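Record 1 of the preview.
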Amino acid sequence: MKKVAAPPEPKRPFTRREALKVGTTLSVAAGTIGLGAWLYDRAPPAPKALPPLKSHRVERAAGAAEMAIAHGADAADNTRRVIEALGGMAAFVRPGDRVVVKPNVGWNRLPEQAANTNPEVVAQVARLALAAGASKVWVTDNPVNSAERCFERSGILKAVGAVGAKVVLPDETAFREVLVEGEVLRVAKVLWPFVEADKVINVPLVKHHGMSAATMAMKNWYGVLGGHRVRLHQDLHRSIVDLAAMVKPTLTVLDCTRILVANGPTGGSLDDVKRVNLVAAGVDEVALDAFGASLLGLAPADVGAIAEAERRKLGRSDYKSLKLVSL
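->
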């Protein structure tokens, strides 16, 4: 696979404790601390020579379902059923497509701790993409903890390998600079599969988050970034929506098998995990985030990024107004 060199990353990622500390410090001292010209809205315009990420959306058949929710104890089967309800993976992936699957693999946790996407859901998405004729399926994320340990302990490394997909781990050569021109982000360094892929499938899970109230579909795009992304916590909700506007995924599959209802995003205690046995899927990330928030007992207004995304017309929070299939 072709890789393009990028500036070296820090020798180790921030811990969650460091991230919170740095984010708080930057919020207080933003007027005096240089935050990096390539990140913030007071920076000069990004150079136009940089390419943006292309849109990975596909045209939907007239009358097709816009969102589906499947209930059941089998996470892989729930995943299959919601994608079938949307027209099947062939409605999203064409023969020969290179597909990147983006789970949340941020933390060195076991599947039962609900800090990462369920490996059965991720593997089923990869399996269905390959069955639809994808020439390559890359599964990637840029975790907060050690990438090798996160992918291994989450069960995702083994699960996706068993179906023939390839895990792409981040290293100093794994990122490419792209144009964003968002309200906060001007340019960004992103994992190379997002530049090379023909289709992008977002596979987040539903978790409580101590800073953003919840992390689901839109917040999952933090994991495509290199560099000192903790700086984005200074303007968190607008940053999240800049990323959602940047990526434009083909399909989103929301893992609600186990949800983390407190002490997110890292989790750790099984007392904070609720078994819900749901998977949802659709093409409107705002609607899926609103649905996921409801599982945490939150209204859309409680999650700042949802309101911000609606303001920018990226989707709608009233997911019940969509053509919705419940299985």
